[in-house]
Amino acid sequence: MRRGDHRRTGRAPNASLSLSDTPQVRWETTVAEHDVGDIVATEYGVVTGTGADTSTVLFRRNPTKEHRVRAGGPRGSEPVIGDGVLYFGGSRLTAVNVVADRVEWSTSMAPMPGDKSETPVPVRGTPVVDANAVYAVGMLSREGVSLFRLDGSDGSLEWNRPLSDRHLDVDYEPVLRDDLLVAVVPDPGTDTLQAVAVDRTKGTERWRQSLPIPGGYDAISRESFTPVAAGEHVVFRSGETIHAVDLRTGTVEWEYRSDHGNVIGPVAADDECVYAATREGQVLALDRRTGEHDWVASIAGQCREPVAVGDEHVVAVGQRETGDAKGIHSPATVAAIEKATGSPRWTFEHEGTARAPVIGDGSVFVAFWTVRHGAWSTVAALG
Question: What is the pLDDT of residues 87-109, one digit of tens each?
Fold first, then answer.
């Protein structure tokens, strides 16, 4: 879903995927001697981060041409790319030109003049980019959480909009659709989620919707409330509930609680359906207008990662335990499911713990981590 979708529109870049009935490994390469981070499929190749340091690896379509760049501080969530520039969150927001292999700018995201805090603002979650600007959520140590707009050419700050005067130490990722940015932030003081729509140009607040968190904020996971756009709706999950709100008004259109197991997040979407996986190995397609089931499919093992959505297929990964107490030797299953019917197209097994799949450049990309012969991370391109 969101991996590689730098505007959080629900549309994957280069999402056309021609799959045979038997998946082929187009290439596979070792990334690092430690756990790999999220993958982003771009028009320039595959980008992934490593968990041990601030480096990010870029494969320019050909895995033998590997580039490593540094984010200038601890990474935050996945990087994004726009017009040949790769943007990293973390203690700083850094822009790297992947064509020229140079850092364009890096900023500590200091608050606007007159703000109470003088502490640099870390970026929490994946930035969003468009033709002229970069949008990111910063977590202020005392004042809470704000949404920032920066000039894409030099990183200068154009506006910030407070979202909440409280914060949790989690990632916050906005969705961009037309002239609106929508962010969802939890309020631990009231056990609610605040969905906030902000004008992308002016930074003014358009609407705010408060939703109760079933079970309180202790019940939500790290990525529970990452929103996606689905037609005229913004959709996100809190706990076991999926919410759909009207993009223009913030009105709650429907809510869904799964009858097929514990929903994991974040959800995925296109202009027809909302897609989610459950920990019990079910993949769900819901009508994005009503929240009613379109189809339910089963895959081998437990689902621990969100699904990826292409033009014709949904790709999910399942994990099966093999008796290892830590599960680090358990085999992973990658499953391609036809969007129109929910029918399985193919499955592929690989040793190790699978990360969230990504669709792009005509392939399915999946990262795997295993410690059987030492700690190693690999990235495989399937098609």
Answer: 887 777 888 888 887 889 988 76
Helix then strand then coil, in percent of the chain rounded to 5, is 0, 50, 45
Instruction: Return the DSSP state at 171.
Output: -
Query: What CA–CA distance (Å, rounded) separates 100 from 370?
Result: 34
- Delimit the domains of the chain by residue range: 25-382
> 35 by DSSP, 3-state: which?
coil
HEC sequence for 200-244: CCCCCEEEEEEEECCCCHHHCCCCCCCCEEECCEEEEEECCEEEE
- What secondary structure letter does DSSP report for 263? B
Please, are residues 276 and 242 in contact by the beta-carbon 8 Å criterion? yes
What pTM did the predictor assign?
Answer: 0.86
Helix/strand/coil for 52: coil
| Residue ranges of E strands in 34-188 | 36-42, 45-50, 55-59, 66-70, 75-82, 85-90, 93-97, 102-107, 128-129, 133-140, 144-151, 157-164, 175-177, 180-187
Report the chain's mean pLDDT, rounded to a whole number.
Answer: 80
In this structure, which amino acid lies at residue 188? P
User: What single-letter amino acid sits at 338?
Assistant: E
Going by CATH, does the domain composed of 25-382 fall within 3.90.1150.10? no
3-class DSSP assignment, residue 17: coil
2, burial (CB in 10 Å: exposed 0-12, middle 13-18, buried 19+): buried
